[in-house]
Design a protein that fits this description.
The complex is a heterodimer of chains A (about 350) and B (about 260). Chain A has about 350 residues and is of the alpha/beta class. Chain A has helices at about 10-20, 35-45, 45-50, 60-70, 80-85, 90-95, 125-130, 145-165, 175, 195-200, 225-245, 265-280, 295-305, 320-325, 345-360; strands spanning about 5-10, 25, 50-55, 75-80, 100-110, 140, 165-170, 180-185, 215, 245-250, 255-260, 285-290, 290, 310-315, 335. Chain B has one domain: Rossmann fold. In chain B, the strands form two sheets. Chain B has a seven-stranded mixed beta sheet with strand order 2-1-3-4-8-7-9, with helices on both faces. A two-stranded antiparallel sheet of chain B has the order 5-6. The longest helix of chain B has 18 residues, at about 190-210. Chain B is globular. Classes of the chains: A alpha/beta (about 350), B alpha/beta (about 260). The structure holds thiamine diphosphate (TPP), iron/sulfur cluster and magnesium ion.
Chain lengths: ~350, ~260
C-alpha cells in the first residue's frame, strides 16, 4: 500500500530503496547524507526483504562492492556526498566499462577539497561529463523535491538496468536535509536468484552446465577491438539521448526570458519568477530532470523564442556551458550562481536576471 | 623393439589429467612463473569438489588479470586492489556460492591493503589466494610491498633499502591476527611436494567455506623469473634461500 509520510530527502532515499526491492546498499558516512544509511540500519531490511546493508571501510570499497553485487545481477546502490563521490570515480569508470548497472546518490556539498557541508551544485561537471577516466557517461537524475528523491530511486535502477550503465541521483544538501510530504510506493518483491539468472544472462551467478562461463571485465588489450567496444558504448549513449531526456517547463508559453535551473535552484528560480512576473517581466522556467542526457533540443526550441536565458546554479557556472552549447550563440545566455555552500534567495535571482539580461 | 605413443596412452598409464575446469587457452605466463601452477591447483580443487557451477571468482590487476581466460568459472575482473570489496558483496548477495579472490602482492598488500584488512576483519566468507612474488610482475619488475631488504627491482635498482624504501610487509601475519580469518597459511609451488601441500591448503580453504565462519587465506610464495631476471631454476633456488627465511612456509592460523 502507498503511504503518505513527512520526512527528509535522505530518509526518502532509504525508504524508497527498500520498497522498490533493492538488493544491497553499501556506504560510508559523510554529511549531509548520513541519514540514508542510518535510516536503513534502523529499518533492518535484511529481516523483511532480505536487502543487505553494509557500512564499508571507505567509498572506494563501497563502489567496488557495488561492482561485485551488480556483477551478480543484483540491484545495488550507495549514497555519499562530494568528497566521497570523488573517491568513487575509478569504480564508476570500471562499472561503465564493464557495463554494470548501479545507483549512486550524491547529496552534493560545496567544494573543492573538504569544502563545506552546506548545499552546492558544484559537482555538475563531474556528474555529466563522465567523472572518471575514459569515454563514458552516467545517467544523471536531478530531483527537486523529497518526492522525487523517493521516485528517482526506482527510476534510477530501471534506467541503469535498461542500459547496463551506472545511474546517479544528483541531489544536494538542501533536498537531502529538508522535510516534505512524500508518497511512498507499496513494497515490491526483490528479484529471486532464479529471476536474476533469467533476466540477466550476463551476470556471474555460478556457471551452470547449460551455458559458457560469464566474465565481467573492462579490459581489452586489442585496440581495434577496444574501439569497437567504445563504439558500442557510444551507440548506447546516443540511444539515451534519443529516448531518456526528461525535463519540466513552467510559465514558458508567453515567456520572453528563460531560466534554466535544476534541483534546489529550480525551486528558488520558480519563486524568483513569481517576483519578476509581478513586475510584468515574463519569465519561464525549464527544469532539466535528466542532466545526462541533457534537454539540449528543448533548450534550443524554447530558447530560440527568448530575449535572453539565465542559467541559475549553486556553482560558479557549470551547466551554463551546456546551455550555451545548445543555444549556439543565437541568444544571450548568462549565468547566476552563489556557491561554496551559499544558497541564493529568490530576490537575488530576480535581480540577477534583470541586471544580466534586461540591463540594470 | 619400437614403442608406439598410442600404446602408452592408455587409461591405466595416465598419471596426470588436465582438469576439466581449465580451458584450452594457452597461458601467457613466463616460463618458471608460479601463477600457472596455482591456476592448475585451483582448477583441480574446484573440479574435485564439484563446485564449478557454484564458484564465482574475482580476478586482480596484475599478471593474473587474465586468469578468467584459463578457468571456466564465472569471473569478475576487479580494479587494482579491490578484489576483496567485490568478493564481499558477491558473498553477501550470493551466500549460496563459493567466492574466491586471486591477487598479487601489489594488488593485495599495497593498493588494496585497506580492502584486504577490512574484508578479513569482517570475516567475509570467501577464499583469498595471494601470490607473493615480491615484485610487480605485470608492470615490469618494480618494487612491491613484499620486496625483500636488499632485493633489486626497477624502482630500487640498488636493492631495497628500508631506510628510504620502507620495510617488506608480512601482510599474511597481519590477517592471521584478525578475528575474521578462519584459516591462514603460507605455501609455495617450487617442488612436487610443495605443490601437493599447496593443493591441500587450497582444498582446505574451500572446505572451510562450508562452515561460513570467515575468510580463508592462502599465500603462495612465488617466483617471477622475468621480474627477478633469473632463469626458472635459479628463481626457485633464490626463492628457497631468500624468500623462505623471511616468509616461512606453513599454517599460521587454523580455527
Ligand atoms: C590504479 C592503478 N594503479 C596502477 C596500475 C598499474 N599496475 C598494474 S598491475 C600492477 C602491479 C601488479 O603487481 P602484483 O599485484 O604484485 O601482481 P603480479 O603481476 O606480480 O602478479 C600495477 C602497479 C593499475 N592498473 N591501476
Ligand atoms: S612477469 Fe613474473 S609474474 Fe608475470 S608472468 Fe612473468 S614470471 Fe609470472
Ligand atoms: Mg607481484
Amino acid at each position: 500500500m502507498s503511504e503518505l509520510r513527512l520526512m527528509k530527502g535522505n530518509e526518502a532515499i532509504a525508504e524508497a530503496a527498500i520498497r522498490c526491492g533493492a538488493d544491497g546498499y553499501f556506504g560510508y558516512p559523510i554529511t549531509p547524507q548520513s541519514e540514508v544509511m542510518e535510516r536503513l540500519m534502523e529499518l533492518r531490511p535484511w529481516e523483511s526483504t532480505g536487502m543487505v546493508v553494509l557500512q564499508a571501510e571507505s567509498e572506494v570499497a563501497s563502489i567496488n562492492m557495488l561492482y561485485g553485487g551488480a556483477g551478480c545481477g543484483k540491484r545495488v546502490m550507495t549514497s555519499s556526498s562530494s568528497p566521497g563521490i570523488s573517491l568513487m570515480q575509478e569504480g564508476l569508470s570500471y562499472m561503465a566499462g564493464a557495463e554494470l548497472p548501479c545507483l549512486v546518490v550524491n547529496v552534493v556539498r560545496g567544494g573543492p577539497g573538504l569544502g563545506t557541508i552546506q548545499p552546492s551544485q558544484s559537482d555538475y561537471f563531474q556528474s555529466v561529463k563522465g567523472g572518471g577516466h575514459g569515454d563514458y557517461k552516467l545517467i544523471v537524475l536531478a530531483p527537486a523535491s523529497v518526492q522525487e528523491m523517493a521516485d528517482f530511486v526506482e527510476l534510477g535502477f530501471d534506467l541503469a538496468f535498461k542500459y547496463r550503465n551506472p545511474a546517479l541521483i544528483l541531489s544536494d544538501g538542501m533536498i537531502g536535509q529538508m522535510m516534505e510530504k512524500v508518497e511512498l510506493k507499496p513494497q515490491q518483491k526483490r528479484w529471486t536468484d532464479e529471476e536474476v539468472e533469467k533476466m540477466h544472462p550476463w551476470a556471474t551467478t555460478g556457471k551452470p552446465a547449460s551455458r559458457d562461463y560469464n566474465i565481467i571485465t573492462s579490459v581489452e588489450l586489442d585496440s581495434e577491438a577496444h574501439e569497437v567496444f567504445n563504439n558500442k558504448l557510444q551507440v548506447k549513449y546516443r540511444e539515451m539521448e534519443e529516448k531518456e531526456v526528461r525535463f519540466e517547463t513552467t510559465d514558458v508559453e508567453d515567456a520572453e526570458y528563460l531560466i534554466v535551473a535544476y534541483g534546489s535552484s529550480a525551486r528558488i528560480s520558480a519563486a524568483a519568477i513569481e517576483i519578476l512576473r509581478d513586475k510584468g517581466i515574463k519569465v519561464g522556467l525549464l527544469r532539466p530532470i535528466t542532466l545526462y542526457p541533457f534537454p539540449t533540443k528543448e533548450i534550443q526550441r524554447l530558447g530560440a523564442k527568448m530575449k535572453g536565458i539565465l542559467s541559475v546554479e549553486m556553482s560558479s557556472g557549470q551547466m551554463v556551458e551546456d546551455v550555451r552549447l545548445a543555444i549556439e550563440g543565437k541568444v544571450k545566455v548568462e549565468h547566476f550562481g552563489r556557491y561554496g555552500g551559499v544558497i541564493p534567495s529568490p530576490d537575488e535571482v530576480a535581480d540577477a536576471l534583470e541586471q544580466k539580461l534586461i540591463g540594470g | 623393439m619400437s614403442v608406439l605413443i598410442e600404446d602408452i596412452k592408455k587409461a591405466e598409464n595416465l598419471v596426470h589429467k588436465k582438469s576439466s575446469v581449465l580451458t584450452d587457452k594457452v597461458m601467457h605466463y613466463c616460463p618458471g612463473c608460479s601463477h600457472g601452477v596455482v591456476h592448475k591447483l585451483l582448477a583441480e580443487v574446484i573440479e574435485e569438489m564439484g563446485i564449478q557451477d557454484k564458484t564465482i571468482g574475482v580476478a586482480p590487476v596484475g599478471c593474473s588479470v587474465f586468469i578468467y581466460n584459463y578457468l571456466a568459472i564465472d569471473w569478475q575482473e576487479a580494479a587494482h586492489g579491490r578484489a576483496p570489496a567485490l568478493g564481499t558483496a558477491i558473498s553477501r548477495l550470493r551466500p549460496d556460492r563459493f567466492v574466491v579472490t586471486y591477487q598479487g602482492d601489489g594488488d593485495l598488500a599495497a593498493i588494496g591493503t585497506a580492502e584486504t584488512i577490512h574484508a578479513c576483519n569482517r570475516g567475509e566468507n570467501m577464499v583469498m589466494i595471494f601470490i607473493n612474488n615480491g615484485i610487480y610482475g605485470m608492470t615490469g619488475g618494480q618494487m612491491a610491498p613484499t620486496t625483500l631488504e636488499g632485493m633489486k627491482a626497477s624502482t630500487c635498482p640498488f636493492g631495497r633499502d628500508p631506510q628510504t624504501d620502507g620495510n617488506p610487509l608480512k601482510i599474511t601475519e597481519i590477517v592471521a591476527q584478525l578475528p575474521g580469518t578462519n584459516f591462514v597459511t603460507r605455501q609455495a609451488v617450487h617442488s612436487a611436494a610443495a605443490v601437493r601441500r599447496t593443493k591441500k591448503a587450497i582444498r582446505k580453504a574451500f572446505e572451510k567455506q562450508k562452515e561460513k565462519t570467515g575468510t580463508s587465506f592462502v599465500e603462495v610464495v612465488s617466483t617471477c623469473s622475468s621480474g627477478w631476471k633469473m632463469n626458472p631454476v635459479d628463481s626457485n633456488n633464490w626463492m628457497e634461500e631468500n624468500m623462505f627465511p623471511f616468509y616461512p612456509l606453513g599454517d599460521i592460523k587454523d580455527v
